[in-house]
């Protein structure tokens, strides 16, 4: 998901996934996330949930392009708000842009590309270790909240941590990731932001979904499973009791070159039934 390099990110993304070992209506809700995303002492804003198709592009499109793309096929767009491993520049992504596209009717899904696993292949701008995972997770969580707030995404918004594929059978590596994710989630919760997580059904998402100790894990899971099936239920790979009540996203198609109006954008498609940013 995180785009690592320049304007040709869509072509390089496929190579990157291979290199990294990848195989394999708005409603008010929120009671279900209480156990993992909130504390009893905090009064939380109602969850803002979007259900429908969403897309993500490496660089947030212009406001004009977003207007042209508001045809009804997509209702939400994921945007990369920060993180040291964020791959593309974001010249359009400003507080004014967020306000404008929100007024156009778009729902926004904030993505943060933080530290990546120590066993992940390739060079990253930020990698965690077993020793610093908790510290990095807390620092990145704080930064994610700051970035979201600066864009006008208010408390109660869901922020999604992007974790790319890694060898989850590597015990020490997996332990570092879980430590990092828990610290990230806990930090978001203390700032009254909901925690979400993007990962691959064959690896990084599976690590979260199958972890027995659910303490401080994200309350919303966005799984990459490129089966071209627009659903968050029929191909859900894990227990049906997990991530219920509007807590799932499913990235089901990648590198889809699409044109609406005068604007052609290469996007990834997701089926969405989960919280989004609270704006305005």
Characterise the protein shown here:
With about 280 residues, the protein is an alpha/beta fold. It contains seven helices and nine strands. An eight-stranded mixed β-barrel has the order 2-3-4-5-6-7-8-9. α3 (about 65-70) links the parallel β2 (about 45-55) and β3 (about 75-80). The longest helix has 20 residues, at about 170-190. The radius of gyration is 17 Å and the shape is globular.
Q: Spell out the helices and strands N to C.
A: HEHEHEHEHEHEHEEE
> Low-confidence parts lasting 5 or more residues at pLDDT below 50?
4-40
| Largest β-sheet summary | 8 strands, mixed, barrel
Instruction: Work out the helicity level.
Output: 25-40%
- Judged by helices, strands and strand pairing, the structural class is alpha/beta
> Mean of the pLDDT scores?
89
Q: What is the general shape? A: globular
Estimate the strand proportion. Answer: 15-25%
What strand line-up does the widest sheet have?
Answer: 2-3-4-5-6-7-8-9
Radius of gyration: 17 Å
- Count of helical regions: 7
| N→C terminal distance | 27 Å
Instruction: Please count the beta strands (DSSP E, at least 2 residues each).
Output: 9
């Amino acid at each position: 998901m995180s785009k690592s390099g320049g304007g040709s990110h869509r072509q390089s993304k496929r190579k990157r996934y291979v290199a990294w070992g990848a195989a394999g209506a708005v409603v008010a809700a929120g009671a279900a996330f209480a156990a993992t995303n909130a504390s009893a002492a905090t009064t939380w804003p109602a969850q803002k949930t979007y259900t429908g198709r969403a897309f993500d592009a490496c660089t947030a499109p212009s406001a004009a392009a977003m207007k042209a793309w508001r045809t009804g096929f997509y209702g939400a767009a994921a945007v990369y708000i920060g993180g040291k491993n964020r791959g593309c520049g974001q010249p359009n992504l400003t507080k004014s842009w967020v306000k404008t596209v929100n007024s156009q009717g778009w729902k926004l899904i904030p993505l943060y590309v933080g530290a990546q696993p120590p066993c992940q292949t390739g060079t990253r701008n930020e990698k965690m270790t077993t020793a610093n995972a908790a510290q990095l997770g807390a620092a990145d969580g704080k930064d994610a909240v700051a970035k979201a707030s600066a864009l006008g995404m208010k408390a109660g918004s869901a922020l999604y941590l992007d974790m790319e594929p890694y060898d989850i059978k590597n015990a020490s590596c997996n332990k570092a990731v879980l430590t990092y994710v828990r610290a990230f989630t806990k930090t978001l919760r203390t700032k009254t932001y909901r925690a979400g997580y993007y990962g691959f059904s064959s690896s990084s998402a599976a690590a979260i979904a199958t972890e027995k100790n659910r303490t401080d894990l994200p309350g919303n899971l966005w799984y990459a499973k490129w089966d071209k099936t627009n659903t968050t239920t029929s191909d859900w790979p894990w227990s049906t009791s997990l991530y219920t009540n509007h807590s799932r996203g499913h990235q089901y198609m990648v590198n889809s070159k699409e044109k609406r109006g005068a604007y052609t954008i290469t996007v990834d498609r997701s089926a969405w039934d989960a919280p989004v940013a609270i704006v305005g």
